[in-house]
Amino acid sequence: MEKKRKLALKAPDPFVFYTIGALLLCYLIYRMDVTTILSSMSEVGVWIFVVFATAIFWIMTNAMSLANLTNYRIPYLDLLYIQVTGDAYNDIIPMAGLGGEPYKIKQLSNFIGLETASSTIVHNRLIHSLTGLLFTSLTGFATVALIDLSDQWRIPILVASSVFALATVGMIWLTLSSVPGKLSGTVLKKLKFIDGFRSKTLSPKKFAISFFWKMMSRTLNLLEIYAIFVVLGYTPEFAHIVTVSAMLSLSATLFFIVPQGIGVSEASVSTAFVLLGMGAQVGLVFGLLRRARIVFWALLGIGIQLTAVLIRKAVSRKVINQEVQQKMIKEPVKSKAAINRKLRREMVKEPS
Is 124 in contact with 65 (CB distance < 8 Å)? Predict the structure, then answer.
């Protein structure tokens, strides 16, 4: 037992990668003309909210993927709430974009049970990942076809795009197999949530529908790139949008361990702008505007979730007070405090 403990490798702390990404971002800013960056950011003004608003489109389509996987048993507004707040936790918890998945499982379990919620989120995450690989591959090939690149860039992009295309096939097989169900069961047993777990496989039809919605979400991400170009005063060509998207997708896939790609995504956008002959400084401003959108939706999601919690508590307190008043009418001898304690004990005994 002692030997096993000594041989066990300590898992890397996610904050290490977060720190590395933050340092990279600081280094990029240090190398640029800060005055130019601040001037460009200030010129954007209120138009930055147009950039923020583009996220609504892919949030809605991502929620449609969840709706399909849950057989449309959950109201769409509730799914939007889970998507926005869950993604907010994914953004703020440095766990390679997975910090909000347990939260989503907990929220979905209120409607469809813990087993189904767990397998739903595992399948949804796998489809999200495989569409990411496919979209990266497609934008990589498109960049090589549309932009005149040197061999220094063309060959690595072609190789990476080809590898990701092959990986997509493997991910499709994995998603349709029984592995996701077994993975969910293993995790739930380890956490002592469920002793007996029935492994569930995803039907090809349901997979195809969620795949469509996830690919739609990836495509709608191009709207944000177009919007940032416009607010910065550019009229982008399709090749410009695809190139920026390709570099962002490649960096996100290769450096997925860095929380929200901090520093990495800004570096990739700067590289894309250099390839397009538009200057690294403009690319960094572009990347910072994207970062502002991520922070905005993270804060908004957490704010919505906290507001919902406070409202539920206020409603619960009001219900308790009403029941206390009714009890006092029926049992005037007892004090309000005693009745209140009794009601709280009864609420604790009730199944959630």
Answer: yes
Nearest to 301 by CA among 293, 313, 289, 311: 293
Give the DSSP letter of residue 74: S
Instruction: Please state the separation of Cα 158 from the chain's center in Å.
Output: 27
Sign, CA torsion 281/251/212/52: negative
The pLDDT value given to residue 331: 57
Q: How many angstroms separate the CA atoms of 83 and 124, rounded?
A: 12
Other beta carbons within 10 angstroms of residue 161's beta carbon come to 22
Q: Locate tokens 């072609």: which residue? A: 158
Residue that is written with structure tokens 């509730």 in the block? 78
Q: Which of 26, 11, 42, 20 is nearest to 289 (CA)?
A: 42
For the beta carbon of residue 141, count every other beta carbon within 10 angstroms.
Answer: 18
Q: pLDDT tens, 243-299?
A: 999 999 998 888 777 666 667 788 888 889 989 988 888 888 888 888 888 888 988
What's the predicted TM-score (pTM) here? 0.76
Record the tokens describing residue 345, joined without a space. 């004990």
Cα→Cα distances 218→2, 72, 79, 125, 337, Å: 48, 22, 19, 14, 56
